[in-house]
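Here is the promised in-class demo. Please do not try to memorize the tokens; focus on the logic of going from shape to residues.
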């Protein structure tokens, strides 16, 4: 009615927040645990951390950062789970899906995503150190299963292997399930191994960058909280 541009009003409000921060207490939709001592929603965060370390990245924009998780179109349930975790961790933020060739990028927009994932930095993850902060370690201690589930849903799989054995002179084929986790970052692989150790799950290296879980008891343990992608 007064002809004042919306951008001008936005600048007034921004300057007011800078001068009088106590008059604008942070709320879950415009804050994060690192900046405003809010309690993180630990269970979905642990899962989202696994997804981020596997197939996620953060893109910088002016006063905004975009968290993006790439999910194969073959797993629509994974796409839904990634978006739900983003909303649970950062309530009120905008999410979207961008279709790529063979995959969907699940995106969320907030200036605080770099606070929630301080492992963000220039270059590829395997070319820089990946070290968790103390508060992230507490989350992993509380919800290690969700972290493993996120890592496997991003950079892992559950497959059926087979082998042959000779029994009473006859060669027989045996099929058995196995989990694989592949990542180029030694730091991320170490986080995966250390969490498996804490859960009492046996593992071994199948290749230079691939960790395998094949023992029957360990596969059964992972099946209880990971299971196949869908």
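The designed amino acids, position by position:
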């Amino acid at each position: 009615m007064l002809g004042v541009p919306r951008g001008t009003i936005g600048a007034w409000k921004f300057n007011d927040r800078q001068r009088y921060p106590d008059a604008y207490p942070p709320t879950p939709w415009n804050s994060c645990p690192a900046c405003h001592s809010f309690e993180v929603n630990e269970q979905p965060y642990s899962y989202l951390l696994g997804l981020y370390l596997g197939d996620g990245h953060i893109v910088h924009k002016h006063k905004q950062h975009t968290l993006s998780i790439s999910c194969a179109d073959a797993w629509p349930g994974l796409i839904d789970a990634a978006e739900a975790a983003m909303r649970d961790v950062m309530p009120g933020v905008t999410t979207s899906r961008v279709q790529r060739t063979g995959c969907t990028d699940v995106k969320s927009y907030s200036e605080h995503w770099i606070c929630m994932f301080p492992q963000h930095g220039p270059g590829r993850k395997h070319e820089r150190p990946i070290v968790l902060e103390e508060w992230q370690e507490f989350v992993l201690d509380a919800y290690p299963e969700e972290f493993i589930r996120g890592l496997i849903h991003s950079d892992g799989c559950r497959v059926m292997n087979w082998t042959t054995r000779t029994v009473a002179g006859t060669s027989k084929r045996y099929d058995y399930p196995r989990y694989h986790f592949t990542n180029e970052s030694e730091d991320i692989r170490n986080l995966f191994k250390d969490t498996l150790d804490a859960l009492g799950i046996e593992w071994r290296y199948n290749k230079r960058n691939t960790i395998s879980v094949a023992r029957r008891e360990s596969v059964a343990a992972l099946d209880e909280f990971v299971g196949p992608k869908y």
